[in-house]
Design goal:
With about 375 residues, the chain is of the alpha/beta class. The protein is built from 14 helices and 13 strands. The protein has one domain: Phosphatidylinositol (PI) phosphodiesterase (TIM Barrel), CATH 3.20.20.
């Protein structure tokens, strides 16, 4: 990574709120790792998860723009490929539920595919469309039952390209946090994601250590391959269960559970600069209507390995919140759509010392972060 070690990069970019609520010895350890950096005690970053997807259909310029206006320091495009090898921002290459493709006269493109062990039946995929064809489609709200207000924007916004997301971020001085989606699958069909991603970063002067860029992946092999090809920080995503798709393909018996052990984190630190764990990895039971358990040692373990920690995904509706954070009358037909006490959830993770987090509503995350900083 150029002339800077990953541990130095870690000190420079933050672990800022590790001083909020960490045990004394762990806090002292983190302070010692940071005090020599020019940035001092940085605030944790707020990453607009698919933009401001609580308020606008996800992965649209409108969603990203709103996230920026709400104070997000990074916006997150999930990247998939078109038939003509252009990168676009979609949560999945399956676009049946996030676009109006069903109404656009493409019945001949309906397919059933198994991708990373999941069957996607009778739907449409980005790799079966050229970019020009995808640009004729419009985005729709992915969660209309939870976020019916966002359906008011159905049919208004195009599918953005990676280049369009980069230009928006540069215009507003924020960073990008792209995820390579299903990299092994796209490799298998001759549409590798890494080369066009790196080409785009280089064209835009972003392939450098101090650029506002993180690259993330749930797989391991592509991050290891990227390590020797780019200077930008890399983040290993870690799901709540299961195993990386490339491990499964190679019959590697390891799972995500193995990646969060001290040994697993030490291995990650050889090729990545941070981890993006599902939030239950930090606070067990923090799932829909779950009961919270005692926080794990993952943040402290990752920091000891020199890794940043950016958990996902924080959403405000009762549908997604653990039982202690839910608010309102459970008998109300609006209960699951209603917002719960997400500020308390966010404050908990800030106290535990995350270096950033992925959130659907950046405005709340920024506000809670500022309150936490004032109290420290």
């Amino acid at each position: 990574m150029g002339g800077m070690s990953r541990r130095s990069m870690f000190a420079r970019t933050g672990a800022g709120l590790a001083v909020l609520g960490l045990p004394g010895t762990a806090a002292a350890h983190e302070r010692a790792g940071r005090e020599g950096s020019s940035s001092g005690r940085s605030k944790p970053i707020v990453i607009g998860h698919r933009g401001a997807s609580t308020y606008r259909p996800e992965h649209t310029i409108a969603s990203y723009t709103l996230a920026i206006a709400m104070g997000a320091e990074y916006i997150e495009p999930d990247l998939v490929s078109t038939k003509d090898h252009q990168l676009v921002a979609r949560h999945e290459n399956d676009i049946g539920g996030t676009t109006d493709v069903a109404t656009r006269g493409f019945a001949d493109r309906i397919r059933t595919k198994t991708i990373d062990g999941v069957v996607h039946a009778d739907t449409w995929f980005t790799e079966d469309f050229t970019l020009a064809e995808l640009k004729t489609l419009r985005a729709v709200e992915r969660l209309p039952n939870v976020r019916p207000q966002s359906t008011a924007f159905d049919g208004l916004f195009e599918i953005p390209t990676l280049q369009e997301v980069i230009e928006l971020a540069e215009q507003h001085g924020v960073g990008i946090y792209p995820e390579t989606k299903h990299p092994s699958y796209f490799d298998s069909i001759g549409l590798s994601l890494e080369e066009p991603l790196l080409d785009a970063l280089r064209r835009n002067g972003l392939d450098r250590l101090d650029a506002k860029v993180f690259i993330q992946s749930f797989e391991v092999s592509n991050l290891k391959g990227l390590r020797s090809r780019t200077q930008v920080p890399l983040v290993q995503l870690i799901d709540a269960a299961g195993a990386p798709a490339d491990f499964v393909l190679k019959r590697d018996p390891r799972t995500y559970d193995d990646l969060v052990t001290p040994q697993g984190l030490a291995e990650i630190a050889r090729y990545a600069d941070g981890i993006g764990p599902e939030k239950r990895r930090i606070v067990p039971g923090n799932r829909a209507n779950g009961e919270l358990g005692k926080p794990t040692s993952l943040i402290a373990d990752a920091h000891r390995a020199g890794l940043l920690v950016h958990p996902f995904t924080f959403r405000p509706e009762n549908s997604f919140l653990a039982a202690p954070f839910r608010l309102g009358n459970p008998n109300s037909p609006e209960y699951l759509r209603a917002r719960g006490d997400q500020p308390a959830e966010l404050a908990l993770y800030y106290r535990l010392g995350v270096d950033g987090l992925f959130v659907d509503n950046p405005d709340t995350a920024v506000a809670v972060r500022e309150t936490a900083a004032k109290r420290s």
